[in-house]
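quick one before i forget lol
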Amino acid sequence: MVRRRSSIARARFALLAGALVLVALLAAAALRGDGPEPGVQVVPTPPGDQDAGEPIPDPFAYDADDEEALVRRAAAGTSHILYARSPGGAAATAERVARWRPRVEAAAREASVDPDLLEALVFLESAGREDAMAGDTEGAVGLTQILAETAVNLLGMHVDVKESEKLTRQLGRAIEEGRNQRAATLIRARKAVDDRYDGVKALAGTARYLTIAQRDLGREDLAFVSYHMGIGNLQDVLADFGDDEASYARVYFDSTPQRHAAAQRRLASFGDDSSTYLWRLEAAREIMRLFREDRPELARLEGLQTRKNSAEEVLHPLDATPQFATPDQLRAAWDDGTIRAFPNEPAVTGLARDGRMGELAEKLGVPAGLYRGLRPEALAMALYIGAQVREFAGTEAPLRVTSTVRDVAYQQLLVRRNREATQAYSLHTTGWAFDVARDYESRRQALAFQFVLDRLQVLDAIAWVREPGAIHITVSADARSLLPLLERLD
């Protein structure tokens, strides 16, 4: 939504595709002892460990040459919420939004911006509903969710808040009573006193905002970011970053708790998802592209995205992902290297293995160690998370991993005693998922873990969900770029 600086609510706080060959070459060089080139960011090594080998290049660090790939990954990594929360579903929302395309194109020409991004803004802000309303009449309303203050004081729109509020109440009663003709009359009357409810005028107002924002910020991507964050707040972020001409991809992905830390802290301080607004716009843009060009794929993704509280089934669909049905099948996976042991070496990994892991194994007549492993890529991701959190938190206290691989037989036993365990397809039965206990040594460690989770999810490298006692993490197969980290266990 359009926001002025004063309206921001303050609260708490490449890559893989297209770069795998480069990453593999760099990682191989590291393992030969050549080490990465100067300036290449690396995965932190265990403190005081002389046997950790040469530093390994971080495949998730910002690289200007991979910026387009970063943006594509960010669109995929942030798309789950659009599929999960779009009114009527993503396809239905896309259909509503598509009706506005001619008007969107006209407004985009006026503002000299990409019509696909402006269309994505309509998807994200109102789901294509001209009468959308967030809160009261003074708040964000209309097709592009403009605040009353911004509409009047910045965009020159006609907004009579009191009259608009009165008509909105009357309209609500008319709809409840089924008085359709009366409702239609009130809708027209409200548009006459509040331009924000007129989709054409709302788009024109948004075009004026984007024109102003591009003038002040100098870039289209920054103008769209400011639509939610506010121009002044984004200027503060750029000042903290130290480059007011940087792309938003660079600002976002090159800001960590240790690099451009002030910018990262400011981005984290916005409690309304302002920092990921551009990535959600890119996700909406992709949904609209699929709606026009590949509706079967849109339907497939919508089905996968809405089955769970995360995008884990997009990363590993049931029909394309082998499960371990029985202890014998899981044992065979250990024998052929499909599963590798999860170590209990906190000093090396930054991770502690919960002693209760695999505690139901005796009921199946097998050793608990059978359920203490992961696929190599998932294990490498766990090592990456442990190393990053330890570095960012500045503590050697480990995260505690409570669960790794299971077979379906074990999962069925777990369901009987743990109501949080899913009776449906569990990613634990594939070796791609693990859980981390939500008990932290300090707030600093908790915030570091949250940063790493959020960044990896934006990069579509993991999907995660918060459960009552643990964070459930599913790892993308693209984590193969982290496999050199497994050398630290040898």
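fyi Confidence is low (pLDDT under 50) at residues 3-33.
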